[in-house]
Amino acid sequence: MAVDRGGTRPTADRPGWSACVIAVAGFALCLFAGGAGFSLPWAPSLDLRLAFALDGLAVLYGLLATGVGALVFAYGTRYLTLHLEHQRRPAVERWRFWPWMTLFAVSMVGLATAQDLVLVFVFFDLTAVCSYFLIGFDRAEREARRSALMALLVTVVAAVAMLVAAVLLHAEHGTFAIPELLDRAEPSTTTTLAAALLAVAALAKSAQVPLHFWLPKAMAAPTPVSAYLHSAAMVAAGVLVLGRVHPLLARSEAVLTGLVVVGAASVVVGGVLALRRDVLKQVLAYSTISQYGYMVMLYGIGGAAANGAAAFYVLAHGIAKSALFMTAGAVTMATGEDRLSRLGGLGRRVPVLAVAAGAASATLAALPLTVGFFKDELLFAAAVERGPVTVVLAVVAATLTFAYIGRFWIGLFLGPARGSVGAASTLLVAPVVVLAAVAVLGGVVVEPFARLAEDAATVSAGEPVTMSPGYHLDARPENLMAVAAWALGGLLLVLPRLTDGLSRAFAAAGERFGPRRAYDGTLRALDRVSAAVHDREVRDLRGSIAAVLVPAGLLIGVAFVATPTAGAYMVGIVEGADWVILPLLALVVVATVVTARARVRLVVALALAVVGFALAALYALVGAPDVALVAVVVETMLTLVFVAALSRLPREDPDRFVPGDPVRRRRDVFAALLAGLAAFVALWGFLSQPAADSVSDEHLRLTPSAHGGDVVTVIVADFRGLDTLVEITVLLVAVVGVATLVRRGRLW
Amino acid sequence: MTAHLPALQVLVPLGCAPLCLLLRRFRTVTWLVFLLAALSSLACAVLLATRVDDGPLHYEMGGWPAPYGIEFVVAGFNTPVLLVVSVVAVVAAVYARRSVGDEVDDRRAPLVYTCLCLTLTGLLGLTVTGDVFNAFVFLEISSLSTYALIAMGRRRRALLASFRYLVIGTVGATFVLIGIGFAYAVTGTLNMADLADRLTDLDGNRALYAAVVFVFVGLAVKMAVFPLHAWLPAAYGEAPSAVSTFLAAASTKVAIYVFCRFAFTVFGAGLVFTTMPVGEVGLLLAALAMLVGSAAACFQRDLKYLLAWSSVAQIGYIVAGISLATAAGVSAGYLHVINHAVIKGALFGAAGLLVLRLGSARLDDLAGLGRRMPWTFAAIVVTGLGLVGVPPTAGFASKWALVSALLDAGAWPVLVAVLASSLLALVYVGRIVEAAWFRDPPADLPADQPRAPVSMVAAVWALVLLSVYFGIDASLPGGLADAAAAALLGTGGA
């Protein structure tokens, strides 16, 4: 057992064990409830259903997620306790960890069983959100936070592609249900586009080139997170989606070819870079990129054999890789070192771990007597079926795997002893042993694994798949390829200089032209755009009023320009009472100009009063004497109030009205002229139209029945009494406003 | 009694306003009066909503028949708005007691309730009225009381925000009035249905075009459609939290409804969307609003400002749906009106909880508070995901409806804007999460902060749960939205 600080044993990790129990229960469910499923209406108006089914593919991924999950969670109960101790964080921080781990496991099972494209998207994003909190668990470290955000952004942004694909497919076929979509999809541009978008989302999740850069960064996460998310769960989610919609992908040769290319590129880039990494978890991260490249390549090859091989590969790889991640974590916990260059010769000091890790490495390297042997056998078989290019690729891939994983194990456990070793906790070793045992068991009795993969492949290939992996002692191509890969891999292992230069060149190229730069650049550019928008935002009142008036004026101007002008403007003739109106209007114009140019407040008030009285006279002339009377009363009151209020203000400063900036003044005059012109044109156009019969005739007729003497009173008090009531209430608001602003809440 | 429901809907809050003012010595009583006003309007709205299935309800004010007197109309197109406004008012009322008590001094608190009653009156009146001038009057009362409410914010900047809104809002209201005046001049009537009838003979009338533009530009100011949104961020950012919660959820939504009412049932879809390019302009502005609003939200330092900018973008979604002028588009717009009201109400409410505890809602001050205020931040995250439109939140339901409507109409560029805006939404919601959980709390955080009052937390979570429910089962808001679209397009002759 590890050293316990201060002599007090840490409390049992109850949330961790609860998570473990949940995972075990999920494992049992996946094991025994195969074939079950249900479908409930979710949002019928949107055509969404909660459709889940535990079909072959779901069982495979469900078992992997819950089985590996249970072991990793058990491992994590110990690891996290130590981790928090080392960082001097309180044990209660577990509660920031296990809920997310559990939610992640649940989302993975949900993702595996979901039969509706939107549901798939939901769980897909849910896993990303969980991973954000898990990768960023060490939130005190800037690097962890950045890495968490990067993983989230890359996978979620790519997941939007999936949503777009869902929308496209729904528009075409009217459903989100995956089985029906697979049924209805025909080869077409839409199908190709949707398939490509789905593939993009899946590839980003599976950390495939060129969207792979988030995975090595994500190694900032605590080891249980890497052992779970980055071996058998999160990255597997991408491949799971590829399997789930594979019949759709298979409708387009271009998409399949694209998958092969991306897969092959990932195999090579990941594999070569893994060859010379020094940090343990980095080796494994690049290895993951490379290994998932195999699976993507297999799905790209397509057909029954490749689908079966891909399913089998997911299983074998998940088992081996999580065991290796946990090995790395256990070694680091025991020694305090996380670099290959500072470790070595651990085989004699932690023999059990060495043997178990050996079995896991052998699985990855596809040595006989491990389940891994068959994963490569199936891969080779599928490659041979496809053609010589894939044969070469497969051998290269297997060679690289053999070389980097051999270096990893040998570097850790053989050679001269380096570094001081504390005791490795049993709980940190046991899960590795269990997984290694499973891997070896699968190497002897491959049948159950093959059945699982067959069922899964039957779903993804859309046709029954039978596989019969086994040992064949003859010179068939698969065996020859395997031997070639081991031989070449061994060569790379003993001649490290061969790989040194290659790996360095790749790394340098990645630094220089890699997608990381694009990612950083995009974030920076977004920041700049945002800043620019912010600065553009008008800050002063003048500016913000202009921001309303100018666009409004433009819109109205556009409306006028866009409408036909023929007959819209008419010039009438001046006759009769018009001769009296004209001087009145001239008076209004003069008064208006005086208002605009006045420098003394009182003059402004009086000039405005002149405008008002002139308009009242106009009403009287055009036959509305009662309205004119009301206008006169209102105008008189207004002027009196205005003058009274002005007299209470402090004496004015004659310089106040002197305009300052001449440029601004010219601009103001121009804007005012334009607005005046626009108002003139609008009114002209409006007056050129014949007047309509108004409801006011009816008001006049109804006035007696409303018991009123004149129509204005009746309209104000009865016909439109509600308007009056509300307008009076406006006065209430004014009182409240004044009370709030001027009198600090006192009313009177 | 039940025949008078449309009138009671508006008149009860209107009557409560002076009551608040008279009883201002008793702060709790004024709060109760506002709560009662909100509850009564909710009761009326629910009763009305159950009755409109058999056709629209008409209520003649003062018993004068329609074109001569003022008419209230309740139909499928406004019951969702009545429900939204009433529900938000009740939630805001529950929330306001402690929030207003904390942010507004004792003497002004009764004035807040008075103005809230008046704003509620104005918004409900705008929604039920079937008369264009009456609509302007209610627009005025809701606007003026809103200005007063914003001025009561904690900081001095609230005065500036209020003044800015006052000037801009008055320009907008004047535009609406000019437009109504033009429409009256060419038709001689103020009743909406009557106007629609008389307008059919006025093809190609230029004054009518001017009326349409003036009314719509004026309403666009009230709706805060980009680029006429300049008043909104400061107004929502500076208002007392209870007020922001209410306004952000209800006020622009009602303006949007009035826009729909004018477009489809007064001027008619044929004139507005076929003859005049309102739909195209609307789509363009909506797309710009989504991009600019979300981008600006990413850059805010204050949570309330961030949420306000996000509103600018979200209004873009609604306007995009309506601008399509298809049944699917209008229904999507309505659905988002409902869902966004619930989501934004909850978010501003949660921001208010932070203000109560910290005295501000600056993002820097939120550092590391995720664990100290788990319920508040859980509310922010759940509803924030709704803003992004992550399934299965309510925001996803409406965004999905919008996206499929855009697809049907082939509006690809707008679709791209929707997606880009959603990604930006992820960024700004992510910033809140990052600040709350991934930054270390300041060392000098006082330990004895007040706990968030149960009433405020309950009010916020009522909206949060409602938004979650609407995400899981979208049939209630979806049904309301579909009915609204059918009612609008059916009478609009599209």
From TrEMBL, chain B:
Signal peptide: none annotated. The chain crosses the membrane at residues 6-23, 30-52, 72-96, 108-126, 132-153, 165-187, 207-233, 254-275, 281-299, 306-328, 334-356, 377-398, 410-433, 454-472. Residues 130-423 form the NADH:quinone oxidoreductase/Mrp antiporter transmembrane domain. The keyword Ribonucleoprotein does not apply. InterPro entries: CPA3_Na-H_Antiporter_D, NADH_UbQ_OxRdtase, ND/Mrp_TM. Belongs to the CPA3 antiporters (TC 2.A.63) subunit D family. This is Monovalent cation/H+ antiporter subunit D family protein. It comes from Actinophytocola gossypii.
